Amino acid sequence: MTVLQIDQLSKKIGRKTIVDGLTLTLNKGEILGLLGPNGAGKTTTIRMIVGLMSRTAGRIIINGVDTKTDHAKAMNSIGVIVENPDLYKYLSGYDNLVHFARMSQGVTKQRIKEIIALVGLEHSIHDKVGTYSLGMRQRLGLGIALIHKPSLLLLDEPTNGLDPAGIRELRAHLIHLARQEEVGIMISSHLMSEMEMMCDRVAVLQQGKLIGIRDLSAMAQTDELQVRFEVDRPEAAVQLLQTLTAGLEILRDNDHIVLRIAKTKIPELTQKLMAAGIQIYGVHTLKPSLEDTFLEMTEGDKAR
Amino acid sequence: MINLIRNENMKIYKRKRNWILIGIVVLFTLIQFVNLRSTGSVPAQEDWRSQLEQEIAFLKLEMNEPDALPVELKQAQKSILLNQYHLDTDLPPSTNTWSFAVDQAGNLMVAVSFISVIIAGEIVAAEFIGGTIKLLLTRSASRTKIYISKYMACLLFGLALLSIGAVISVVLGGVVLGFQGLGSSYLYVQNGVVEQTTIIQALFEAYLLQIPFLLLTVTLAFMISAAFKSSTFSIVISLLVAVAGFVIATAMNGWGWTKYFVFSHTNLTQYVLGDPSVTGMSFGFSAVFILLHLLIMHLVSYPAFVKRDVV
């Protein structure tokens, strides 16, 4: 089921085109990453979806509701984290939650309690937000975004300024939400390794245009990968592998042998090597990182 | 809508700094009492007749000075008439709690407006400065509703502050001067004749009919806050305009052109407890003139707030 449908979305400011005819869909329970260099239009796209910015053209449909015709209903099913978690610093965490709970229908006291437990702020919820660390504010921000049980979550650069532990925690929350609660999540970030770890699909933007969508799960399973074997007798191993893979390019570097094969072939090859009496110290897959894919896509675009 | 106004109220009253502002108004009211006690404007002594006669003679002298302003002439004339009235009816002039509270209304309104301007100047701009506007506008409430709720919260704050000041004036006045005199009448000069009304009516008129001053200054601060996102700019400009407006309207009272000066209209008591500052002005004209100003200010800030791209 589609939770978000963007159709020919454009934004022009003066003569400059910030977003150019963007068409995208996001499904229930899916995590979609928006990737692109600075100025590619990621933030503008998210801000147009949530109504912070006006659009020049295009349609945005959230759970079957056009945001133009019924803004209130469309917005009721989305949760937003835009950049830094800017909250009311002079209010307590609890008052911040109450503030936003009041802005949605049907948020009970019980729900507020649930949210506090979910983001793990039981001990500091009555302290002023001004005293919170960035990680705590990020958690409270997530709580505020989730308090009305949205079916679509939009995050703009949510990992900015977070430490590794904070990033990891946020990632765990997001994956849980997508898998268990079937929330559709759209996230923009410039941290490609992050995107790689949690996104199902990544949409690459450049100069306001969508230049490609990559299915990351597919990339990890069906594509050929660089595999590196670490063995005790490299010459013998190379010979054996050459016969097994029939003329595939094999690189050798001291005790390391690198070749390009599908992931599914790894068990077979290791078994054969071991059967031939070759000691294997390690097998590493060097998967093409999202960074490579990204550069490939954006460079390719420039060459055209 | 009610929830949105509750939110705005929470953001105003849960902030310690704003209680200092409220404290300033309380302090201001207290200072008025120190004033009252030290000047001791209760000449209920034996020789009150000769005192009033002296005052009349002095005022007449002042009126003959060639450089007297129209407002000075008006005030002097008014005082002479009131003093003469006391002499004629053989009733010594006296200040009681209630008449003191009536006379306080104007001062209090200015103090309350200055403080409310600070709240109104921040109420929209602070959301932009703090970045919270992004959270506020990505909920199901429309921008129009947010705008209205914030404006309402400012006005409610001003009215609450006014009520606090009025209650303190009456309660403290009661402690200092006693609560008697509620049945007495309030004297004022209209059309060159001394008139009187019940003190209760005068009290309500004094507090309600001066609210346009508060309305105008708060709306100005709110307009700048919502349209230009700057609280400093908003507060400074609004305070300057409020001070200048108040001073000009007071000093230039009686000059013909002030008929088209909005601050000459904001004190509507001039139609019930006195004479209009420029002859020919009417209550209806003043009301329309004020509403027109409010409307124009909202026509500047509302579209700016509703259409703005939040970056």
TrEMBL record, chain A:
Residues 4-232 form the ABC transporter domain. GO terms for molecular function: ATP binding; ATP hydrolysis activity. InterPro entries: AAA+_ATPase, ABC_transporter-like_ATP-bd, ABC_transporter-like_CS, P-loop_NTPase. Pfam families: ABC_tran. It comes from the Bacteria. Keywords: ATP-binding, Nucleotide-binding, Transport. Belongs to the ABC transporter superfamily. This is ABC transporter ATP-binding protein. It comes from Paenibacillus faecis.
From TrEMBL, chain B:
The chain crosses the membrane at residues 20-38, 108-130, 151-179, 199-223, 235-258, 278-300. GO terms for cellular component: plasma membrane. Signal peptide: none annotated. Keywords: Membrane, Transmembrane, Transmembrane helix. GO terms for molecular function: ABC-type transporter activity. PANTHER family: INTEGRAL MEMBRANE PROTEIN-RELATED (PTHR37305), MEMBRANE PROTEIN (PTHR37305:SF1). This is ABC transporter permease subunit.
